[in-house]
Amino acid sequence: MSVKPSGKNDNPSVILQRVGEITIEDRPVPKLVDPHYVKIEIKYTGICGSDAHYYETGCCGSFEVTSPMVLGHESSGVIVEVGSKVKTLKVGDQVACEPGIPSRYSYEYKSGDYNLCPEMAFAATPPYDGTLCRYYLLPEDFCVKLPSNVSLEEGALVEPLSVGVHAGRLANIVFGDTLVVFGAGPVGLLTAGAGYAFGATKVIIIDIVQEKLDFAVKNKLATHSYNSKGKSFDEIKAFVVETLGGKLPTVGIDCTGNKFCIANTIKLLAKKGRYVQVGMGAATLDGFPIAYVAENEILVTGGFRYSVDNYKTSVELIASGKINVKPLITDRFTFEESIKAYQYFKEGKSIKIMISGPE
Ligand SMILES: [Zn+2]
């Protein structure tokens, strides 16, 4: 389904003024100056936990909002203008927008880990404006064209899916692996789904909210689920061992940032198991099972956002039907209702809230 550019000449933007205060304002339409850039008319934006953190506390991780900032970074849209050196995109193309631009001169960029670039300009991460506006500029190679069987709504879910794809790559998930994921929020669900698509034969997702667990299994993002509410580590482990035919999982990914979940994920792993930390919580941690890591040669790494080709892989996973992201969208708001959408996010009833527009 093709969506036409609006042809409008304004740039309504959803702006976090200060903690707890969001307004919609008309900002200047950005001008295409760099010949390698394209101008995108944003069509859909998903609300992410980080946006809500800034809204509620002004902070997320080590970042702090000190001046008004446009929110949003999970977007898709239609190309409305291309720079003179753009080769792969044309006006009218529908794209998923990768929202973080590294310095092309950094060591991290050159060595293939551009997500770790210290000069990264990431949408809706202070001081950089986000994508919840009408017009947004990106370099051509940070837009991934959506094939005709991937909708713009699905395109906006490429961002959180790419976090899961990146984590799966870091853990080297291959056919025959078994995976345990703690946390069944959008990133946990998509991380489980990506691991399953990469060939993990059994994927166990663990959370304390039964509806989310049922959602994961029903939508084939995980093969098994476990509600750990009030359960001891031994009870969780007994379920995992039984599910895996007497074995322990080869890969564990924490998508909660919670210290108990982190310790449990690691202690569940088989010898030589691979562990990825995706969830963000406290800066330091009590109760980290360091002896278990040493004695079992557990490989521990962090997973931060996404890197080379993760967006492309995500679009391919959706296009090929290996992951169905659509059911994650539980609530829809228009751009004009953005403030309401952020308030609704706080109630914690949704999996993914999608904002359409501006019209
Ligand atoms: Zn996000």
Automatic annotation (TrEMBL):
Key words of the record: Metal-binding, Oxidoreductase, Zinc
GO annotation, biological process: sorbitol catabolic process
Transmembrane region(s): none
Cofactor or coenzyme needed: Zn(2+)
Domain Enoyl reductase (ER): 17-355
InterPro entries: ADH-like_C, ADH-like_N, ADH_Zn_CS, ER, GroES-like_sf, NAD(P)-bd_dom_sf, SDH-like
Any GO MF annotation of the entry: L-iditol 2-dehydrogenase (NAD+) activity
Record-stated family: Belongs to the zinc-containing alcohol dehydrogenase family.
The name this protein goes by in its record: Unnamed protein product
Protein's organism: Ambrosiozyma monospora (Yeast)
